Structure formats: structure tokens, C-alpha cells
Amino acid sequence: MFPDFIESQALSIPDRQALWFNDKWFTYADLNHRAHRLAQCLQAFDIRRGDRVGILSLNHIAHVDLMLAATKLGHVHMPLNHRLGLDSLRLLVGRVTPSLVLVDAVHEPLAKALGIAWLLLSDYEAWLAEASEAPLARAADLSPDDLHMILFTGGSTGIPKGACLPYRQTLGNAADTVSAWELQADDCVIQCTPCFHAAVNVLCLPLLLAGGRVVLVPKFEPASYLALAQAHSVSLLFMVPTMYRALVVDPAFETTSLPRLRCAITGGAPCPPNLRDRFAARGIDLRLGYGMTEAGVNCFRITAEEAARHPGSVGRPMPGIELRLRREDGSVITEPGEVGEITMTGPQICRGYFCQEDDDAAAQGFRDGWLWSGDLAGFDADGLFTIRGRRKDMYISGGENIHPAEIETALLQCAGILDCTVFGWPHPKWGECGIALVVNDPASPLDLNTLRAELRTRVGGYKLPAEILLVPMLPRSAAGKLLKTEARALYAQSLAAASPIKDMSAAA
């Protein structure tokens, strides 16, 4: 039987603080009791091994309860993205058919409209209190390949794909993260990214495995986040760059005392150098991470020394992941400098997608036992990897391959740029040209001619965007990923009022 790790923790460190939620600390014994009672409740609801149990809610302790109770009953934990529209959620639940969904009061109207079996979280604690402490009538006999979770990808276009995560992935990656990232029993992190996203596995699950502490908040609010970080002596941070940006502009950022903070980790999107500078000024190590719902979620590790020498690198692959960079024809890149697609295999890769046989496009992500990520990267002479963007984002201008991530990284180093995206657009002469949408820092007024001149010093002339358009903000998912389809739509809407695309190549 696969080990019930929360029961093991409850036996060895029962009174240690594990999870803070709603102004209360829960010990490891508390979490184990809650998971057991939840498993009893679900079993009384006739939920069995392999049945899918969802949650449609802001961050709530029930997310953790469901994740831990799965090791006892064998149900599949399946958090739903409450930010999806009704039509998308209706299609999604029609495909994955949850047996029960826990719902908070904010999303009760949505649950009613979906026509699913649901329980309101306001009744949740009373429901748990009625459960028996007796052994489960049908305790799960789980194997490493049994499903622990179904987590849904961003879904910027179409229905999000449900990645099927077995225990060998979730707990295996958590164990590797504890070792590779040097997590300790006295570490503490705030879980503020949405629990419906794979980011819940970045530090929350690993720290519970390490015997550490997790502070769970319903949503991210910069001022309260900083207050909690100080009150609970937080030692680790994890957020996406948009959240870090909101944090550093909060007036309390410079004065909040964080004496135990040893590392801040970011992922999901490019990290502007000025963010690293702000954290460095406070003596905080800000490292880049890379993860995929389908792999890990933590795919790379990097030491503080390596991050200092290679500030744009994500480091080396995690121990449970075998990684190869490949060209489009599938051949493996063996020399530094060349950019290729990240492909991965190993025990920490998911079992595929739910209903994958109905989705040919999704099935193409798995070939001969390898996951093709769609992400491009290169490695240097030291074996450290740097992410270079998405394969589908690459465009060809005048016969040259242009990787938007390179230009976006350069733009983020320019004065006055808070956020940006670059994508290819049809051009009558060059086939495609680059379009850049940039968000300006109001405290640093931007002159586009000056920006172009500065950008020219950072990238080759043929890579300069043909047009740079100022926008108030860019569309991003809950995980901080840029929604390029929506960004392209913003540009398309601007064409009627904007001047024709400028041919910058003549000045290159």
C-alpha cells in the first residue's frame, strides 16, 4: 500500500503546527483527523476509490483536506477554476463528471447553474464533525500509479486539459523538492496562489511532507500578505511576477521585518530584472523557477550561488525528471547555445490527460513516453538552463526565427517597463513582423523613440518590433501566464484607430 504520509506525520510530530487558516493553527494531528473524517463523510456519500471530488472555491482548508483525504479513501482530488465562465465550466464538468463538489458561498449561484451535486462550505465543518473516528470501511490500497489529482491547465483557448497526476508524481516531486530545494521543518510559506492551480504543489505539499508550516489565505492582498509574512516569520515566498510587482509597490514592503526570509521563488512568466533588484536591495534571494502541471510541478532546481552567477537561469532538472532539448525533427541537442523544445520523461510525469483519447491535440503532447512541453530552452557551458519562450510563439520574419521571450526579456530591462508581450503579426513583405504591447510605469513616463533606441542596444536590429503599443494592462491567467490570444485580440482592436504598421527593418 502506498504510504498515507499525513498519518505518518501525525504519529511522529502530532503537536507541530502545520496549517494556518482563518486565524487558527491546525497541527499535523488535526490535519490527519480532518482528513480521516472527510474520508468517512465521502464514503457515506457513496464515493469510492477513483471517483472525482471537486471544489469550487477561493483558497480554503477544504482544498488541503481533500488532497490529504485522498490518500485514505482513494478518491481523486479535482479543484475547479472558479474564474472560468459558466459555459466553460459546464463543458468541463460534463466531461469529468465529479461525484461531489464543495462550493463556497461566493460561487453557490455558479454551482446551482451547473446542476452538479454540491455541498456548501458554510456547512462543511458541521458535516465533518458528524463523521466517525472509526477505521474506514473501505480504506484505499493505493499504488504509486493511482491518481491523486486532476489539475487543469490554463485553458487560454478551448476547454482546459485535465492533467492526471498520480501519487508517484505529486509525492515524488514533493520529496525531491524537499531535498533539492533544501526545505526544512522550520520553514514557513504563505499559500496565496489559487489552490485550483498546480502552484499548490510548489511549496504547500512539499512543506507538509517536510514537517514545515503553511499559511493559507483565501486570496492575495499585498498589505495583508506582508503583515502575515512578518507575524508568522515566513522563510520562503512563492508568487508569480505580477503578484511580486504588487508586493514591492506596497508602502509596507520596505519596512516589513522579514528576518527569517531566505528565498523568494517566482515562475509562470518572465521576471523583470527590476524586481530582482528590489529584492536584492533587501538582501533577499529571488530565484527563477519553471514548472508544468504535467511534470512535477517543480521541474528545475538552482542554488543561491548559481542564481547569483546566472540570474536568468532556472538551473538544472529535478532528480525525478529526465530532460532533453529537441529540435523539431525529434533529434536531441547536445551542445550549449542551441535552442530546442523541452521534453521530459520519468516518474514525475503525469499519466496523460483525462479523456485524452477525445483530444488529439492533447495526445500529441505525449510521444513515445516523452512529454513535449511546447516550451523552448537552451543550456550553457555549465549545464544551466534558460527558458526561451513557447515554440508556438516563435515567428519568422524575413527568413529569421524570432523568439519573443528574448525580446520580452530585453524590454523588461528597459526603463519604465512594468510588463510586456511580443508576438508575430502578418506582414506583406517580411511574412511576419513583431508587435510589442507594453505597460508603462506611471512613475517613469515613457518615450517610444527612446525605448526603441534602448531596445536596439539589447537585441539585433532585425529583431526589433515593427510596432510598440502602450496598453494599460495585459491579460493574464490566475497563474500569471500571459494570455497571448487575448493580447493579440487587443492589438487587432487597436488597428482601426492606430497608424499602419511601421517597417522597422529599413532602420535595422
The amount of beta strand, in percent, is 15-25%
The shape, in one word, is globular
Which stretches are low in confidence, meaning pLDDT under 50 for 5 or more residues running?
499-508
The assembly state of the depicted protein chains is single chain
Q: Radius of gyration, rounded? A: 23 Å
Helical proportion, percent range: 25-40%
General description of the model:
The protein contains 16 helices and 27 strands. It is α/β, with parallel strands linked by helices and 508 residues long. The chain folds into two domains: 5-219 and 289-368, ANL, N-terminal domain (Rossmann fold); 390-507, 2-Layer Sandwich (GMP Synthetase, Chain A, domain 3). Helix 1 (5-12) runs antiparallel to helix 2 (28-44), helix 2 crosses helix 3 and helix 7 crosses helix 8 (204-210). The longest helix has 17 residues, at 28-44. The model is unreliable at 499-508 (pLDDT under 50).
Keywords:
single chain; 508 residues; alpha/beta; Rossmann fold; GMP Synthetase, Chain A, domain 3; 5-stranded antiparallel beta sheet; 4-stranded mixed beta sheet; 29% helix; 25% strand; globular
SSE topology:
Blueprint: H1 5-12, E1 17-21, E2 24-27, H2 28-44, E3 52-56, H3 61-73, E4 76-79, H4 86-96, E5 100-103, H5 108-114, E6 118-120, H6 124-129, E7 147-152, E8 162-166, H7 167-180, E9 188-191, H8 204-210, E10 213-216, H9 222-231, E11 236-239, H10 241-248, E12 263-266, H11 273-281, E13 286-288, E14 291-292, E15 295-298, E16 300-301, H12 304-309, E17 316-317, E18 322-326, E19 340-345, H13 360-363, E20 366-367, E21 370-379, E22 385-390, E23 395-397, E24 400-402, H14 404-412, E25 417-427, E26 431-440, H15 448-456, E27 467-470, H16 484-494
Parallel strand pairs: 1-10, 3-4, 3-5, 5-6, 9-10, 11-12, 12-13, 26-27
Antiparallel strand pairs: 1-2, 7-8, 14-15, 16-17, 18-19, 19-21, 20-21, 21-22, 23-24, 25-26
Helix pairs in contact: 1-2, 2-3, 7-8
